[in-house]
Amino acid sequence: MPQNSVSLPVIDRPDVHAASVEVIVAEGRETQQSVLDAVAADWRSRSWPRGLVSASSYRSTDERSVLTYVQWATREAVDRSLREDRNEPGWGVAGASSRGPVPYRLYRVVRGGALTEPAPVPGCFPAAVFPMTGVEAARRWIDGLLAAEEETEGEDRAYPGAIAANFHVSLDGSSVLVLSEWASEKEAADHIDEVIEPLLEAAGGGDAGARYVHCLTLSGPDV
Question: What is the separation, in whole angstroms, between the first and last Cα of the chain?
């Protein structure tokens, strides 16, 4: 089937069961680009798999990593992809490395309260991964973090530039992925410094991750 490039993935699509997420360590802009090129070439060389909804790539603005976010329609499809895909570590790029993709399900989405109509196009995507000890523990951690935010910052979340924060729990419960959408990197960075880092410190610590820009999304012909 032909594959169509589209502008951005819709994170909370109702027809998505899980997303397979991989963080590839790629130090330097040249290494990042080599990984992005290898990922795009691999995706475009394959027949579109049954159950694949979209495949997206991002590069971090600190020039240290690449993130891939691949949406699947069913648990069977994501499990099959993890069994059958045998990409080289770091996608065969010298100096790049990865522990492989991790499948996540979207658990909660919170939206910014200062959005205008029409909503701005996201220009920055902060992403962070936090280790967990099970699915229920991960959900409690997310709920507790958001409750603490509402207590200190208010329920409207009227942060300048905030579009959405997408909280995912890995299928095995070993981690939480937070992938956010912001109008600009400056607004995202200010929010992380002023709100997120104090919340994480109060919750027991954690790395606020990296900020990414979108590079490519491929989707099937029915999208």
Answer: 12
Domains of the chain: 4-103+214-219 (3.30.70.100), 106-211 (3.30.70.100)
Three state DSSP letters for the chain: CCCEECCCCCCCCCCCCEEEEEEEEECCHHHHHHHHHHHHHHHHHCCCCCCEEEEEEEEECCCCEEEEEEEECCHHHHHHHHHHCCCCHHHHCCCEECCCCEEEEEEEEEECCCCCCCCCCCCEEEEEEEECCCHHHHHHHHHHHHHHHHHHHCCCCCCCCEEEEEEEEECCCCEEEEEEEECCHHHHHHHHHHHHHHHHHHCCCCCCCEEEEEEEEEECCCC
**Cα 154 vs. chain centroid, distance in angstroms?**
25
Q: Per-residue pLDDT tens, the chain, 223 aa: give them.
A: 446 676 899 999 999 999 999 999 999 999 999 999 999 999 999 899 999 999 999 999 999 999 999 999 999 999 999 988 767 778 999 999 999 999 999 999 999 887 777 878 999 999 999 999 999 999 999 999 999 999 988 888 889 999 999 999 999 999 999 999 999 999 999 999 999 999 999 888 888 999 999 999 999 776 4
